[in-house]
Amino acid sequence: MPSQVTHELLLICTCLCSCLSLRSTPHQLCRVQSQGCKASICILISQNSNRIVTVVEIYIFAKQAQPRILTCTYIHFFHRQEIMKWNGWGYSDSKFLYNKKGQAEFTGKRYRLSGMIIPGLREWMESTFSANLQHKTPAAPILNSSAVQPPTLNEAFLKELKSTGIPFSHDAEDRVFRSHGHCLHEIFALREGKIGRVPDLVVWPNCHNDVVKIVELACKHNVCLIPYGGGTSVSSALECPPEETRSIVSLDTSQMNRILWIDEKNLTAHVEAGIVGQDLERLLNESGYCTGHEPDSMEFSSLGGWVATRASGMKKNIYGNIEDLVVHIKMVTPRGVIEKSCQGPRMSTGPDVHHFIMGSEGTLGVVTEVTMKIRPMPEYQKYGSVVFPNFEMGVACLREVARQRCAPASIRLMDNEQFKFGHALKPQVSSIFTSFLDGLKKFYITKFKGFDPNRLCVATLLFEGDREKVLQHEKQVYDIAAKFGGLAAGEDNGQRGYMLTFVIAYLRDLGMDYYVIGESFETSMPWDRVLDICRNVKARIVRECKDKGVQFPPLSTCRVTQTYDAGACVYFYFAFNYRGLILFCSREEILANGGSLSHHHGVGKLRKEWMRESISSVGMGMLKSVKDYVDPNNIFGNRNLL
Amino acid sequence: MASKAVYSHRDPMLKKRDDFEDMLEERRNSSDLRYALKCYTPVLYKGLTPCKVSELKQMVLQSDQLGYVITQVSKEKGVTSDEVTGEAAAILEEMAQRLQLSTVRFFAFTLSKVFKTLFRSICINEEGLQRLQQAIHNHPVVLLPSHRSYMDFLLMSYILYTYDLALPVIAAGMDFMGMKVVGEMLRMSGAFFIRRSFGGDKLYWAVFSEYVKIMLKNGYAPVEFFLEGTRSRTAKSLTPKLGLLNIVMDPFLKGEVFDISLVPVSISYERTLEEALYARELLGVPKPKESTSGLFKARKILSEDYGSIHVYFGQPVSVRSLAESRVNRSQFNLIPRHIPTRPSEEILSFVNDSAYRLVRAQEENMVLKPWVLLAFVLLQKQAAEEKQGTALDELTEQAVWLRDLSRQYGAFLHWPDHIPPSEVVSSSLSLHRGLVRISEGRVQLALEQVGGQQVPGETRGAITPEEELLNKAVVILSCASYRNQALNVFIRPALLASAIHTAASNRKQEIYNSFSFLRNMFSNEFILCPGATVQDFEEACYLLVKTGTLQINQQEVLITERGHRTLAFLTSVLDPFLQGYQVVCRFLCEQDGLTEKQFIPAVRKFIIKHLLTGRLRYTEVLSSDLQKNALAALIRLGAVQKIKGGEEQGTLKLNKVMLNSLEDTLGGKLPTQKSVVAHL
After folding, report:
1. Which residues pair with residue A73 across a beta bridge?
2. Hey, of B46, B49, B318, B330, which one would you mutate to test binding to chain A, going by the most A CBs within 10 A of its CB?
């Protein structure tokens, strides 16, 4: 995107924001024409009783030789369901589907893959899952409001809430949207139109003080609060406990999305916790900074959510995980506000209270403001990829890279199944030349180098920093890879690998249309167990499917996504054709083999039963006593973790 | 799934077993040479990384596990780690197998010739082999054959070669190494040699366990070893040894493989090659050292008929399902896996239980021949001192009765039902003509003509009564070794029958106490799973009620009209052992200061004296196996204490009050509750 365009766009945005804050404009559609580019701005304003702006979308059409569509989405809305799916992943306009010719296609304009035909996907899906395009199970298209239980309202609470002027809603759509995360069983139920316990009320605090008021009122009237950030949880953390009889209020932090200040001397930024990852990054970029925290869910997940679940970002090797990035946290609890009195980079003041907050999963309070480290934007970025003859060699290489502490910003190793999957997602190539080149590469690797296409695996790399150092670093990593039989496989493959991360969640929705269900889960483990765990967990998935009577063998695949001095993080995916099937869990296998309960997804309610085993009874007692002190009446009653 | 198939207490009649095929039939009809040179392409483990014998050794020497122990040993002994590595390499050299297809082909050829002359048939359950093939493909496999003869492991490899299955590597005792040429040939057919004892030698243990684990984990070949540790001289299954089982389960428990299949194999011989040899050994003639020339002397054997062999490949048992909800595998998470650790109590008891289940699985699929039943009858008659033998008709009648009974108890009996019983009986007798004498239609054990069984070269002067007794004992113990094959079928009901016999009243609780006492007493003698007293009691009750021997209500156990015969039979099954243990107790009561080494000769002398004076009925009590088991049981119960270390190393410290009381309880003179053991 030319910098002028960016500039133009920013102006427009600023303009719009001030205009929107008046909350008065009706439906609008305007076009802005300016120096060589065209922006189309779509403003949708809700007709809802609260009269609140829902969506602003800005499309910029750059006038270039090859017309490209640059999209930029500015989300500032209460009613996310109007641009996001209510029963699937991500934006409503982006999804995989089979077009009339039976070819797979990714719709929308938001991603690199958007609008492209993916010729290999159909065959891959049919052969991997024995799925059939004839057998379709479409999702319930719209939410049937009558299926939603009427809200249990606490009138006294409601009355006082009204007097504070904080917006709220008990509209069925609003409530259902905030009743779930993205676990398979949650989405599955929604697609089937099955709706269980949902929040009774949604509130949108605008700032820290609003939250303080809400929490005070909740304590006063004994109302259950469930903080809601980006809604990308995959641990059943957002599910309302069915046994909860009090009124449940979903506290949506989305309006607390401002960067309050940037301190360039100390390289920190003070940010409201409701800000969504992509907005935070974009806003900081404008000032030439970044946080470098990029979890796979960063398009939708929020800062507060990261803190509450001990999130991990793809580029943690350079920037660190959330616990390394956070300098100061402000959290509102039923007992009051907790925060440290200074912003020293490290303190020895007893056990770090931040560590009670990080990973508390909404059981102790609401994170409202966070000071976090920022870095100047990297001068240069380069993707890369390496092909290994087999997974074992790949893991050995990653271990060596970690030993030498020269891991690039991101290094990920996909196993053979995932490599094939990535291959199936290659978009249609436009020229004969490209396809010829692809053929040549394949020939070189499989025939000339003798790699077995059913065993080889690929590592994707991302380097960041100043140009010279990146190139030097790149050489070092490729040299190590060569020792383990790795062949450099080009930038494009690397980039596509990372792009996959964002679209893979969309793919699950396509699968579910055709009786294929999938789920992912992660763990971390010491280096010496990586291979064993990968093999055993994959084998366990296959065996469980067989034992449970799943007709066709499942896809069972994994990738190593993070490297540490003492171990690694592994992501597993499985999917299968479920005509007649049940769910199951491989966590037991992971724990038995020395893997952790979770590396960054958190515990939620999904993995609660293993907590005691994981952290010992004493550890549980410690957490319990903190909860008992901070929140004696269980106001934050999502029942996660403990 | 597979674990449940191993053993279920419920109706043994319903057990499904595969059919047999005779593999020798084809050998008799086609060229042995062509067979030996056939194309051999077995199905291999799917996760196999193929490697050579030498690479295998390298992997062992470079493993983290061994590296750790080498460093440790070099620090302890103050020598360089290179020296210790050298030592380890030497151990490995001595141990390692060198499996070669050409040697296997040679064996295939010669064994075909030998087997065809020795045996009428070698019967295999081919379905079991199909299951095995599947198992080999899916997971690393451990083969666990029963061990009754030297033939066992040659036979195993021969079968696997014939059916195009992956050849195993076999853990063999070092004593084979004595036979130079044969030792090396066995090595080239897949045997690897382990020292009989290496208790304290850390390095040896590390090399050995790592060697086995690497072969197993990489799917190099199925690993074969004998759970019983050694050949059973009595044909009763021996108490399983846990060392190797522990090693092969380890990779699964530590998550290094997804699963391991354990395949119990039951090999039953209609006539054991080592028949008289074993009996002599049990009576105190020491085991000849294995030597090549000794093997050739055995050529005489080649001229005899040894009937048929039945080999049953049991249902593969998944270690994963055995361990499910039994072992918490996360206990291995906190220590790096290459550091050797002593297995926890939990693991030990798990391995022990698994070992018992596997031995029982072997027992259950052991084919029993009609002769086994005849041995019961003949031995009981002999003990009852019926001098003139049993009429053939009577013998047949009793055998048929016993046939029906054993079938009801779930025995895997191979009784040809299409042939009249009298013919079955006489053909069985003729195969074992060395052990029985038939004159004027009456059958008895061939106790008088034992002179012919003596080793040639021994002077045949005047026979002392003692020698005569020992000669008789050889025949009786040989015969007993056949009877013993079926003891596992009757043991639980027999314990119950004896308990009923000794208990003071017919109250169920009292009988249970008595049962529990006997079971505890004999748990070194028979395969009785530890901690399963209640199940065993229930199983015994179930069988006896089902066959109409007993009626059991809430409180009482009642014997039915027709139950007396069965009970009498069952009591007499256990009787030799009861009396044997009593004699051992008596003997110990009369001793002062006895070492463990002196025990066997002294107790033997004591028993001979009692037998000669007619105070003891059962000659088979002379079996050193029984005597050792009795001592082990007494040590376990605390009636005897073995002193370790110090000047009195190996001395047995005797608790005479307890020994006395045990003797009386065994003899039914003391009620079980009041016995010392009841308080233990």
Report:
1. A57
2. B330
Cβ-Cβ contacts under 8 Å between A and B: the total is 31
Residues A440 and A327 in one domain: no
pLDDT by residue (tens digit) across B397-421? Answer: 999 999 999 999 999 999 998 999 9
d(CA B500, CA B557): 8
Report the distance separating Cα B635 and Cα B616, nearest Å. Answer: 24
Same domain flag for B571 and B605: yes
CATH number of the domain within which A271 lies: 3.30.465.10
**DSSP class of residue A65?**
S
Q: Are residues A582 and A618 in the same domain?
A: no
Q: Domain of B46? A: 22-365
CB < 8 Å to A536, chain B: 255, 257-258
**Claim to verify: residue B42 and residue B172 sit in the same structural domain:** yes
Q: Is residue A632 part of a domain?
A: yes
Give me the catalytic one of A111, A383, A571, A578.
Answer: A571
Task: Specify whether B228 is located in the same domain as B348.
Answer: yes
List, as own/partner pairs, every contact residues A65-73 make where C-beta atoms lie below 8 angstroms and the sequence separation is at least 24, other chains included: A69/A109, A70/A1, A70/A5, A71/A109, A71/A110, A72/A9, A73/A110
Residue in A closest to B256 by C-alpha: A532
| Total structural domains within chain A | 3
Q: Report the gap between the CA of A536 and the closest CA in chain B (Å).
A: 5
A229 appears as a binding residue in the annotation: yes
Q: Which of A543, A592, A613 sits opposite B255 (nearest CB)?
A: A592
* A227 touches A594 (CB < 8 A): no
Handedness of CA B324, B328, B333, B335 (dihedral sign): negative
User: Do residue B255 and residue A529 have CB atoms under 8 angstroms apart?
Assistant: yes
B4 close contact with A: CB closer than 8 A: no
Q: Percentage of residues in chain B with pLDDT exceeding 70?
A: 91
Q: Is residue A97 part of a domain?
A: no
Q: How many structural domains is chain B composed of?
A: 3
Q: Is A501 annotated as a binding residue?
A: no
Summarised one tens digit per residue, pLDDT across range B515-563 is: 999 999 999 999 999 889 999 999 999 999 998 999 988 888 999 988 9
- Does the annotation count A571 as an active-site position? yes
- For the stretch A173-198, pLDDT in tens is 889 999 999 988 888 888 888 888 99
Long-range contacts of A580-588 (CB under 8 A, 24+ apart): A580/A549, A580/A550, A580/A551, A581/A517, A581/A545, A581/A548, A581/A549, A581/A550, A582/A548, A583/A184, A583/A185, A584/A544, A584/A548, A586/A521, A586/A537, A586/A540, A586/A541, A586/A544, A587/A521
- C-alpha A61/C-alpha A2 separation (Å) is 11
**Shortest CA gap A246–chain B (Å):** 38
Taking any CB pair shorter than 8 Å as contact, residues of chain A touching chain B are: 526, 528-529, 532-533, 535-536, 539-540, 543, 547, 591-594, 613
Per the structure, the complete domain to which residue A350 belongs is given by 67-79+150-377+607-641
CB contact under 8 A, A593 and B255: yes
- Considering only CA atoms, give the Rg of chain A: 25
B238 falls in which pLDDT band (50, 70, 90)?
Answer: very high
Q: Is A142 a domain residue?
A: no
Rounded Cα gap, residues B315 and B309, in angstroms: 19
Amino acid at B217: K
**Residue A578: what pLDDT?**
66
Would you say residue A328 lies in a domain? yes
Do A160 and A297 lie in one domain? The reply is yes
In Å, what is the CA distance from A566 to each residue of A309, A399, A407, A525, B592?
22, 9, 13, 8, 63
Query: The pTM is what?
Result: 0.82
Q: Tell me whether B48 touches chain A (CB under 8 Å).
A: no
The ipTM is: 0.75
Residues in chain A with CB shorter than 8 Å from the CB of B259 are 539
E strand or H helix that includes residue B143: strand B141-145
Which residue among A532, A547, A591 places its CB closest to the CB of B330?
A591
